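hiii, so i know i said id send this last week but things got crazy w the move. better late than never?? heres the sequnce for the chain we talked about at the cafe, plus the structure i predicted for it. fair warning i was half asleep when i ran it
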Amino acid sequence: MPFLLVSFEEPIEPKDTDKNNNFPQPHQVPMFLIGGIGGLGTDWASVIEQLRLSGDNRPIYVYYDPRNVPDPKHPHVRDDISISDQVSLIVESMKEHLPPGGPAPYVIAGYSYGCGLAAEAAMKLHREGEETDLFLVDGATFEVSKKYFSTPSANLVRDLISIVRSIAKMASGCEIDFEVPNAKYAQLCNRPTIECMELIEHLIRTNIPKLNTNDNFNKLMVIAKNSINALLQYTPTPGIPDGVVDKIVLLTTEETVGKHTPPDKYLGWNKYTENLSIVDAEALRKQAHTDLLSGGYAEKLASLLKKFAVQETTAGKLFQRHLDLAMKAYTTLPNSSGNSKEPSPQSSPRTAARLVRSSGAELAVESFSDDDTSSDEEKRLDGDQIVKKLQSRIERIEEAKRLIAPSIEKRALRESGQFMLFGGSQQLAAQSQGAKQGKTQDQIEAHQNTAPTANATITVRA
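okay and structure toks below
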C-alpha cells in the first residue's frame, strides 16, 4: 500500500529457472501505474487488460490514493496531504515491491495528474541513486499545471466539468449525462478554481440527486479538491541538475498541448531530463484526453507501454546494471584521512566481490580470487596503502568488464531466452597469463581452443 498488485483469474506461475537467478529477470521487473486526480487507479483498467492479453506477465502495481484505500502503515493520512508527503508515501511503497535478486530500474507510468506524481517520485528515487524510467500520458509537469489551474479560462472550466463528471461516473458506476448550461459558463470563467469546482459540483448534485447520498462521490470530490489545492500551493522542484530523471517517454494529445498558453508540446518535461522522447502516434495524438485509456485506444497504448518496458528491462541491461553497481561499490574508497577508521562494510573489497558474484558475474572476479579477499591485515592498512592496493584491483576488474561487456546485450536477446558466458574465469585467466608470458592474442586463443573450459550459464526470460 498505497500500490496494489493487479491480480488475474489465471496468474502466471514463475518458471523453475527463475528460482536459480541471482539478479532480476525482465519479466520480474514491476511496472508502477499512477492514474488521474481521482486517485482510484481504475483509469488504467483497460490498458492493464490489454497488457495481459499481449502476453506481458510482469507484476503491475496500481496506485490507490491512501485517502481512498486506507494504508495500514499510514492509517491517518490527512485529507489535505501535501504533494511532497504524498510522493514520499509513493516512493516508500514502491521500495516494498522490488523484484527478487536486487536493484532494478523503476518503470513508472503516469496519466494526467498522475504524471506529476510519477515524475516527483522518480526524481526522489533518482536523488537516492536509483535508476528511473518514465512513461507519461498526456499530463504536464506540476509547474506547468499550477500555472494553468491558477488562471481562470474557458478551457479550465471545461476541464473542471470533465473532472467532476468523471468522478460522478467512477462513484456511481454508470454514464453521467450532465452539461453546464451556457448561461452559467460566463459566471464560472471568472471564479477562482476551487470556487468554480464547487459550483459545478452543486450543479451536478442538483441535476442528479442520487449523488447527494453517494459516499464514494463525496469522498472523491474531497480528494480532488484537496489535490488541486495542493497543486496550487506546490513549489516546483528544480529539474536539472539536482532533480534530473534518467529517461522520459511522453505521449501528448493536441487537445492538451493546445490549452496551455503558449502551447507547449513538451508540457514542461524537457526541463526534467536530458533524455526525452515524444511518442509518434497520430491516432492517439488526435484523441480526447479522457478517451486515451479506454476503448480501442487502450490496446494501442498498451502496446506502446509494453514496448517501453521491454526496452528498458532487457536481460543485458539488467545484468550490466548489476555489474556497474558492483564496480561502483568496489571503487568507493574508505575515508583515509590518516586516522585508524576502518572501511565501511559497503566499500570493502570483500563486499564488492560478493556483490559481483551475487549479481551472476562470477567470471568478472574469479580469475583474481587468489588475492581478492580482504584479510585482517588489509583492514589495518590505511592511507596510500589502501588506495594503491585497491587501485591495482580496480584496473584488473575494469579489464575483466571490458572483455565481457560486448557480448552481454547480443547474447541476452537470443530467441532461446538464454545467454552463455563461455570460458568463464579460465578465459580471463588465460588472457592474463598469456600476456605475462608475452604470447600473442592468436596464441592465447589457440591454447584456449584445446583446453577444457568452465561454462558460466545465466538463464533469463526475455
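btw The CA atoms of residues 38 and 224 lie 6 Å apart. thought thatd interest u
miss u guys!!
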